[in-house]
Amino acid sequence: MTGAGGMLGRDTLGALAAVPGTEVTGLTRAELDITDPGAVRCAVAAHQVVVNCAAWTDVDGAETDEASATAVNGTGVRHLAQACAASGAVLLHVSTDYVLPGDGRRPYAEDAPTGPLNAYGRGKLLGERAVAELLPHTGYTVRTAWLYGAHGHNFVATMLDLARGRTSVDVVADQYGQPTWSVALARQLALLGRAALARRAPAGLYHGTATGHTTWYGLAREVYRLSGLDPERLRPVGSAAFPRPAVRPAYGVLGHGRWARAGIRRQPDWRVQLAAALRTPGFAEPAAAARAAAPALVTG
C-alpha cells in the first residue's frame, strides 16, 4: 500500500491487517515516491493487490504548482497502473469528487460526465484515466470526498480546535457534500480488495463516500452538538467569505449504485459515521479539551 503515513493510509493499513490471512506492506511517501517508475515497479512486484493512498492533497497549492501536483496525482498513478499491468496485480486507487463539475442537483452516478474546476481535479482525473486505460479488468478507482480522521489535518479537527478560542466561528453553508470518516472508507477498501481478488467485483469506478449529505455548516453544527459544544457559536456564510486560490464545487454529492454489483454495502449515513468517529480517542480527547477551554458565549 502506498501513502501509508497519511490519514487514510494509516486507517487502511489497520483495516487490511484485520483481514485474516492478509500480509500487508505499507510504504510511506519517504519509502516510495510514486513519481519514480523504477521504484514503483520494484515495490509492486510480488503483490496481489496494490492500494494507492498516495496523493498530493494540497488543493490550493496545486493551483500554483500544477506540474508537481499532476506528477503525483496523474503521472504517479500511471506508473502504478503500468506496474500492476506488468505484474498482474489488482490496483485500488483513491480519487475525488473534484473530477466532477460540481453543478449538479442530484447525486452524481459513477458514469456522470467529468469536468474538474481546478488543477487538483485535473490531475486526479488523469490518474483515473490511467487506471481505466491500463487496467480495464483489474483497476478500481474509488472516489471519496470531505474526508476526516484522527491521523491528519481535516475539517472536524479544525472545528474542535476553533471552539477552544472563539466565541463565534463562520462556516461555509453553500457547498454540499458527504462527510466521510477515513475508517469507514478504509473498511470499504478492504472489502473491495477481497472482492476484486475473488473476481466478484466489476472493475471500474466506485463512489466511496458516506450516504446522505450536508453543508460544511451542517457538519460543523453536528460536530459541536455531538461534542457537547454550543452549535449557536457557528454562523453560516457564503463561499465568498473565504476566497481561495482553487474553486470548490458547490455540489459534490455522489451516488453509490455500483457497490451492489460487488456485493458490498454502501457506507452508513454521515451522521452515523460522525457519531462513531467522535467516540474514538482521536476525537473525544480534543472535544473534551475544547469543552474545557471554550470561552463563554455572551448573549444580548
- Which residues form runs of ≥5 with pLDDT under 50? none
CATH 4th-level superfamily of the domain at 7-152 and 180-212 and 251-268: NAD(P)-binding Rossmann-like Domain
Q: What is the helical fraction, as a range of percent?
A: 40-55%
Oligomer class: single chain
Instruction: Assign an overall shape.
Output: globular
CATH-defined architecture of the domain at 7-152 and 180-212 and 251-268? 3-Layer(aba) Sandwich
Coarse structural class: alpha/beta
**CATH domain topology of the domain at 7-152 and 180-212 and 251-268:** Rossmann fold
CATH level 1 name of the domain at 7-152 and 180-212 and 251-268? Alpha Beta
Overall radius of gyration: 19 Å
Portion of residues in beta strands equals 5-15%
Major sheet details: 4 strands, parallel
Spatially, the strands of the biggest sheet line up as: 1-2-3-8
Number of strands: 10
Order of helices and strands: HHEHHEHEEHEEEHEEHEHHH
Mean pLDDT comes to: 95
